[in-house]
Design brief:
By secondary structure, this protein is of the alpha/beta class. 37% of the residues lie in helices and 26% in strands.
């Protein structure tokens, strides 16, 4: 029998399954907490909990993860420098380290100006010591990547740190979106590298020698080498795996797949058992990328979402924190610290009296003296803001300075915040009691006092806020899927009508909503949160068996798919230019240019698939000819360009 190991490393839990290939069923499954400070520990706990006698019989390991998605949503990752060639930033960029030099190309791939190599050297001097990776984005580099390629060599030789170019990640137009994609890819390099290293260390220690594959955002697989270079492709990896897993478990051709995890809620619409591929690229947080991914809508709402007050308004998410019930179970002394803090502190800025801080990484090379002191204090376990302020007062650190340092350490993933979450509410309501219920009750009591209500009223309002967020997430996803430009959080009138449907019977105006597709609920919290949502939407709810490990099941069910796009454009008079993703070539006549595109494209696409770990390769060619009218009176048409799409499919080399 052939067995495969599926692993999903999420923001809260790491899931594992052993899949029997011949029987197409789960042999065993397990869950363990994801240990962000040391991923090896959480993965080891999960695999040991599988209690599978002979791990050496495993022929393939597939990994899906939400770590990249969560890092982007929460603004984490390494410090990345951005080198722009030929154009200033068009809009906001996810890094403060931006340098611009002359160069770049026009839409035909002709140079706009000579590349300023001296300017690049000066820019790299300013980057040195401040950034851990560099992204390069040249104007119209998808039409001619030569300037990006030269800059890449200069960065590698001078700084010796990871560097990525926009043309390596996408062939789609859109300078700003391509730039954002390159920066996010650079920021994610250490995040995914750490995950891969951790997984390989664990499986090797357990005698597993099978190859490791990772799930991409479109649900297909790639090998670890490709993932290290293009970690951006793993955004929406976990949700994509959950979609594949849900089709395996539930078998519904048309459905709404809703995966509620610790950090995010991810929603996909299935038609003919498949999600639609996002036509413009994946949208993660506030960033539109050019990454090809399943059209999955991600919302900052999960079991570990931060429950806090903003000007006396009760808010849930999008920031992830550690549940009080979990942390106090591991560190009981923290409950007394929180209780003491609540007696002297109230909500202010981004601080809540239920907040405490826990060290997740004890090594941080770029920390200041104040940050080093904080890390030292947290080395023995989590502490509240009040405790840290008191201990650091003798060092002359003011409270606002402490808060700023904690914000920086949290943003860099060195320190995490623990506070009140929806998971804590479940403990208080008796729906989930695996951790410390008394700590959860304390958190609710503190926040109820801050809001000026009793605990029951607070629970009612907090639960209503969670339900409303989930309800509107489903509605917004359906509107997006249908091509609507309506954004419910910006259109108060339309949102009001849907609110009347959500709270039908509570006001004079009673409306109702009806969703035609069933909801397939995936993830551990599904049983707690989704029945009420399905009832409000008047739709069927399906929670399949093994829904809690659907992501890990989807990971082992994927195949390797690589796609390559080539553009052939006619030149005035005679000849043509071929825009490959890696270079631009001029050819004397148009038919020869097309042949060159077909031949080199197939060779490169096949090589890409093999590098990604594919076997038994199948090549599919799509050709689109674009014509223009040369003489409308005669009906003549002139061939302007040929768009070649080469798709290579293969099974993983298990």
């Amino acid at each position: 029998m052939a067995f495969r190991l599926g692993i999903d490393t999420g923001g809260t839990y790491t899931d594992g399954v052993i899949w029997d290939d011949s029987e197409q069923k789960i042999v065993t499954k397990a869950k363990a907490l994801t240990t962000h400070g040391n991923l090896v520990e959480g993965i080891t706990n999960c695999l040991q909990a599988l209690q599978f006698d002979d791990l050496t019989r495993i022929k393939g390991v597939a990994l899906s993860t939400t770590l990249a998605t969560n890092a982007i949503v929460e603004g984490r990752g390494c410090e990345a420098g951005l080198l722009l060639i030929g154009h200033q930033p068009i809009a906001a960029i996810p890094t403060p380290y931006v340098e611009v030099v002359t160069g770049g190309h026009d839409v035909r791939g002709n140079p706009l100006a000579e590349l300023d190599t001296n300017g690049i050297h000066l820019a790299l001097d300013r980057f040195n010591g401040k950034v851990d990776a560099v992204a390069i984005s040249g104007y119209f580099s998808v039409r001619n990547p030569e300037h990006e390629a030269i800059a890449r060599e200069l960065v590698s030789s001078k700084l010796g740190i990871p560097v990525v170019c926009g043309h390596q990640l996408t062939t789609a137009l859109g300078f700003h979106e391509r730039t954002v994609t390159a920066v996010l890819n650079a920021k994610l390099i250490p995040v995914i590298a750490e995950l891969i290293t951790s997984v390989k260390a664990v499986i090797s220690s357990m005698g597993i020698t099978a190859p490791l594959m990772l799930v991409k955002g479109n649900g297909t697989l790639m090998n670890e080498e490709t993932a290290r270079k293009k970690p951006i492709d793993t955004i929406l990896s976990g949700p994509a795996a959950s979609v594949i897993g849900s089709t395996t478990l539930a078998g519904c051709p048309e459905a709404i797949v809703l995966d509620m995890g610790g950090t995010t809620t991810d929603i996909a619409i299935l038609k003919n058992h498949k999600p639609r591929i996002s036509p413009e690229g994946a949208m993660i947080g506030n960033w539109l990328t050019r990454v090809e991914a399943a059209e999955i809508y991600t919302y900052g709402l999960g079991g570990d979402s931060y429950i806090y007050l903003n000007n006396k308004e009760l808010m849930v998410g999008p920031q992830k924190v550690w549940p009080l019930s979990l942390v106090v179970r591991q560190y009981p002394y923290l409950q007394a610290e929180i209780q003491e803090q609540a007696q002297t502190k109230s909500c202010w800025m981004d601080f809540q009296p239920t907040d405490a801080f826990i060290l997740v990484k004890d090594k941080y090379a770029k920390c200041t003296a104040a940050e080093a002191s904080i890390i030292t204090l947290l080395a023995d376990g989590p502490h509240t803001f009040t405790y840290l302020a008191m201990r650091l007062q003798e060092d002359g650190l003011e409270e606002f300075q402490l808060l700023a340092n904690l914000r920086r350490l949290t943003g860099n993933g060195v320190v995490a915040k623990t506070s009140l979450t929806p998971t804590d509410l479940l403990h208080v309501m008796g729906q989930y009691t695996s951790w410390d219920t008394s700590a959860a009750k304390l958190g609710v009591a503190i926040m109820a006092k801050e809001l000026g209500v009793d605990t029951e009223q607070f629970l009612t309002r907090a639960w209503a806020a969670i339900m409303e967020n989930l309800y509107f997430a489903v509605i917004q996803s359906l509107l997006n899927y249908e091509g609507s430009s309506i954004l419910l959080h910006k259109n108060k009138d339309i949102k009001y009508l849907f609110q009347q449907a959500l709270y039908a019977g509570e006001e004079t105006l009673g409306l109702s909503a009806h969703v035609n597709y069933p909801i397939i609920a995936i993830g551990a919290p599904a049983h707690a949160y989704l029945p009420q949502i399905a009832k409000k939407l008047n739709c069927e709810l399906i929670i399949p068996e093994n829904a809690d490990v659907a992501n890990a099941i989807g990971a082992v069910a994927g195949q390797v798919v690589e796609k390559l796009k080539i553009l052939v454009k006619a030149l005035p008079g005679h000849g043509a230019v071929v825009h490959f993703p890696w270079e631009r070539k001029t050819v004397s006549d148009y038919p020869a240019a097309k042949r060159l595109g077909f031949e080199q494209g197939q060779l490169q696409a096949k090589a890409m698939a093999e590098q990604s770990g594919a076997a038994d390769i199948e090549i599919v060619m799509e050709v689109e000819e674009v014509y223009g009218d040369s003489d409308r009176s005669l009906g003549d048409k002139t061939l302007l360009e040929t768009r070649i799409t080469i798709t290579v499919l293969g099974r993983p080399k298990w």
